[in-house]
## 1
Amino acid sequence: MLEVKQVSKLYENQRGVHSIDFSMSRGEIVGFLGPNGAGKTTTMRMITGYLNPTLGSITIDGLSMADHPKKARQKIGYLPETPPLYPEMTVKSYLEFIADLRGIPVKEQKLRIAEVIDRLGLQGRERQVIRGLSKGYKQRMGLAQAILHNPDLLILDEPTSGLDPKQIIEIRQLIRELGENHTVLLSTHILPEINALCNRVLIINQGRIVLDGHPDQLAHSMGETFEVSLEVKGPREAIMAELRGMEQIASVKPLAEEPAAPLKAAAVVPAADASQPELDAPESGAGADASVDAAPSTVKVLVSAKDRADIREAIFYRMAERRFPILSMKKESLSLEDIFLKLTTNEPAADPAVQSEAESAESEEVTPHA
């Protein structure tokens, strides 16, 4: 659906985008991550035709953006970080204006506008002036103009920026639904959003793609050790010896445990019997306040594998063979936040004078065009 081949955007005396190379298949939802100034917005504007690349080529569904820009743009829906709205227009007049820009036949416009209004929950607001809409509804209007012509590829730049939690949930659900029929490139700074929506992640840093993969496989692709946190019931020394004796395991490290508070056995007080003499209460002492330690003997450890192999099945069978019940077993891996920080920190500071032109290009507002 989308092919970006060795694309660069060079500015005089400053860092730009260098040799970006990736492709997207039809139906994918791809998250596009990177720190401020890394080149996300520049890349998306080149894909959508708002900026021309210095080098390289961009192809949309087989159409070159350089050779067939108008036809290629017709296959794209673009929502910039600041929605391209005209505040003095009403919701309906704005969508009619966008329909004309997008070349939607007049006889189809009424139906398409009605479908988009229904899909984005804009019913009852058709005559409302856009200036009076809330931030959430303005974001919906931005999505409406992006999908009105039913594009094959959606480019969404920070679609949930500035929304309240309820609005974020609604927009995420809408993007998830759009992903069923569209290819989506989603830029965001909200990392949980990537896990919630995307089946692939691109991370860009200093103008270059530094990682490309499935969110659940990123740690493995970075060469991280396969680790499992394990809780097993049984004698500590025997369990540790069994785990350390397995050839697939590189190391076994005890995990800190919360000290278990001893449980006290409740004293059974017999009912008073008038026919029996009253017994004196036992004196305070060990016998009077006996405590029973009911906490089970468990071992919590972090187990690291050799050669990054999945060791969970081998651990299960070894513990079952020795009759040590496994109470919990969890694969540990770097979170997306950890991976992002690992790949994008220690970036050399740029000269403010050199960086100013890039920041200006990144922050420039755009308005829709045909």
## 2
Amino acid sequence: MFTKVHEDKVIALGGTIPLDGRVSWVPAGATGFQPSNCYLLSEGSGRLLVDTGLAVHSQEILDDLVELLDDDGRLSMFFTRSEMDCVSNLEPIAGKFDIERLFTGGAINPFDAFDDLSRLALRGRRQQIDQKGEGGDSMARTPEIEVAPGRHLTIESPLLRLLPTFWGWDANTGTIFTSDTFTHGTMTSPDGSRIIDSLSQDTTTAKQVAEHLYAKYEWIPRATCEPLREWLSDKFETLAPETIAPSRGCVIRGRELIRRHLDFMLAALAPEKA
């Protein structure tokens, strides 16, 4: 079941994952449920899907797209990372809908994820977002993606990453798509809200944020992270987002909540001061 993050302009799709000890990207002992997210951006007749979610949620995502897309079923895609939690549903979505444009980055070819012949058509619609110059099926770096006239998703390349990773900034809705960062928000039940939007009801702790961050970036406690702190602080001060939309974990909405979670993240990036 999809969730409206910002009216009809940003909609979260995907399911939830039980945190029962079998998920490698969360800290040991984590409990509850974690949302797995992809996001449909809509403006007029323009449709852009940010990531495609986990394969285990394929049918849920397809059903939601059938309901949400116009009759022509056309949309574009943007991958924040070339990892399976982002690209797994490329094949079933491309098999059902008309993919106009596909924005990707990094050296990993997203078409390696499936063998369908439709990949040949998709290769011609792929636009590289992180390489300068031309060659192969790479194009000049795309600094922003047009969702529709007057609405663009600006591409950001974060300092905090392992593989090539890209964030998206939607100034129209004040939403920043942070891929595999800010993934610490969990739910106590699978039918709970996938959005944290109440300061008084937010139970997130600094310890929880740090543990989730270190589960993915295990080197942080041993590293000097001041450049990462400065970049993150400057980025959030410049953009002043109203919503954080990660590829995993709860959406965080509201500037007071974002300030709180950003402070937790900055503290986690300074473990020597804790």
## 3
Amino acid sequence: MTASSEIIPDHPLVDDAALLALAELLHGGIRPRRRTLWFVLLDGERRPLPVVVPVDLVPELPDPLGVDNLGRSWHQILRGEPGASVVLMLERPGPGDPSFEDRAWHAALRSAAAEQGLTVAAFFLATADGVAALAPEEAPAPDDARAADGAAPGPVTGVRPRWPRAVPTRRR
């Protein structure tokens, strides 16, 4: 899918086509060799802040503490900006069909944003097949388990994901 909207600096990303155009610009039509999480923060008028952040060395499944830290970072940057949101893109090698792991990242990041009072304007999956948006209902609840044959469970709707908090331990 090719976006028909163009990106104009300091202009709001007013619709899904503009968000897709941003994600396609970030992806650049490359063939990813590793997992990278990209995020762009939007102000209350949906204008992107002038920083695009790629996070490398992204594990296959989300780490609750790492995801919580991302959410806190977004909140610190956007505090005092009512209506702020975040655009997320998980870039990875392989086919374009969303996997269980992709959906787990989707759910974890949406939950982290919600816990900080932010919304996810869009979540994209980028592969060698291109860029595709994942709808909020495509994010499973975190306690969904893989089916016996290893296939990902279907989408779960109406459930707010809850991720465990990290518990500090004492070293001896």
## 4
Amino acid sequence: MSHTTYYSAYSIVGILFLLGILFVVFALTANRLLSPFRPTREKLLTYESGVDPVGEGWAHTHVRYYVYAYLYVIFAVDSVYLFPWATIFAAPGFRGTTLAEMFVFIGFLAVGILYAYKKGVLTWLEQ
């Protein structure tokens, strides 16, 4: 049985990290050297889902759409947190503690949703 020292265990991680960096540099360099480069006017146009660009490239988006995206992220994080909680809840010794923690977590989410509702963010049509 071999004994590894503290630093020798990290040296393996360092070597793998350097090998990963060298591989990426090699792949990007090989791509740059081996790929053909023949720019044309059509190739340099902005590509947007197969539709030719028309007009200016700057468009304003209402902040409400970002709020919807933010609310989606909150619910996604909530669901990611609920699944592991549901699996550990049945384990012995975790019932009371995990139930209290989940009520606190859901309480924070409820306060955030109530705040968004009071601010009128959750209404789709303008009043």
